[in-house]
Write a structure and sequence with these properties.
Number of strands: 6
Largest sheet: 6 strands, mixed
Strand content: 35-45%
Number of domains: 1
CATH class: Alpha Beta
CATH topology: Nuclear Transport Factor 2, Chain: A
C-alpha cells in the first residue's frame, strides 16, 4: 500500500511540474512550417514538397471529393506532369493549437497558377485547411490537407 501511495504522489508531482504549452510559440512553429512548405513547392516542386511535409498516413482531399491516403500515394498524385507547370502560394490566416501542443490546424487562402504550353496562365483561388501533428522528432507534418 505504501508503494502505491508513493507512486501516486510521484505522478502527481510530475504532472504538477509540467510546463503549460506556449501556444503562441507553437503557432509560430506551425506558421514557419507552412511557409517552408510553400517555399519548397516553389523551389523543388509539388511532388517533393508534399512528400516531405506529409505524415506517413496523411490524407489529402482533392477535386470531386477524392481522398488520397498515405504519403506514397500523395507523392504519386503530385508526380503528374501537370504539376510541373504549376505553382501554389498560400498564407495561413488562422492557426490554433491543442492544449497538449502536439496537434494544430490552420486555414487561409491559396492561389494556384497553372501554365500551359502556349504560356497562358490559369488562376484558381480558394480556401485551404490543414491539420498538423508534431512528430516524435519534434517536426510538424500534415495529417490532413
Amino acid at each position: 500500500m505504501r508503494s502505491i501511495i508513493t507512486v501516486i504522489v510521484i505522478l502527481t508531482f510530475i504532472t504538477a511540474c509540467e510546463k503549460p504549452v506556449n501556444k503562441e510559440k507553437v503557432r509560430q512553429e506551425v506558421f514557419q512550417t507552412e511557409k517552408s512548405f510553400e517555399k519548397m513547392c516553389a523551389d523543388k516542386g509539388m511532388q517533393e514538397a508534399f512528400y516531405f511535409f506529409a505524415s506517413d498516413n496523411a490524407v489529402i482531399k482533392r477535386q470531386n471529393d477524392t481522398l488520397i491516403v498515405g504519403k506514397e500515394n500523395i507523392k504519386n498524385y503530385y508526380g503528374n506532369p501537370a504539376f510541373e507547370m504549376a505553382n501554389v502560394t498560400w498564407t495561413p490566416d488562422f492557426i490554433d493549437v491543442s492544449e497538449s501542443g502536439d496537434l494544430a490546424y490552420s486555414y487561409g487562402e491559396y492561389l494556384w497558377l497553372i501554365w500551359n504550353a502556349e504560356g497562358d496562365t490559369a488562376e484558381y483561388e480558394g480556401v485551404f485547411q490543414t491539420v498538423w501533428k508534431r512528430q516524435e522528432d519534434g517536426k510538424w507534418k500534415f495529417v490532413w490537407d
